[in-house]
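Bit of a strange request maybe. I'm writing a small parser for structure token strings and I need a real example to test against, not something I typed by hand. Could someone generate the tokens for this chain?
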Amino acid sequence: MNKKANTRLKVEAAEAVPQSLAEVTEAIAEIGRCQRERDVIQAQMNEALSFWRAKYEEKAKPYAGRIVELTKGVATWCEAHRGELTKEGKTKTARLATGEVSWRMRPPSVVMRGAEAIIETLRKLKLDRFLRVKIELDKEAVLAEPEAVSGIKGLAISQREDFVVKPFSTELEEVR
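Reply from user aminoacidic:
Good idea to test on real output. This should exercise your parser:
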């Protein structure tokens, strides 16, 4: 049973379809005008957001500094009184009248500096169990030789076509 590939393009229906080359040309020009207007609005929005963000960040700056200062002081005091706050290490959190303080141990992490030298040292010491070889599909090789993998179940090469409208626009030069 030979199934014919479906080659039809599926495009959403448009509200208004141009009926001539002149109408298509005008529609593309209109797309360009709309894109430029949208870009102007977006630039205005970004400028306003940047202005207001800077204004509010400046207002918040003294509070951020004060928070850091107070947190350091609270941490110093709590560390000095850790035993009584944690009931000699039985708890990690101390509930106080206005909030709580806690000590949390982060999960261990591996920090590497000079990965090649570390890998070479592990190999010399025959500690290959700490090295990992990652095997993954070479998609570029598959695309270069699609006929070699054509019968493999679960492996397919997909390609789609996009329709792109790119109105012409002119850039204004910066003059100093």
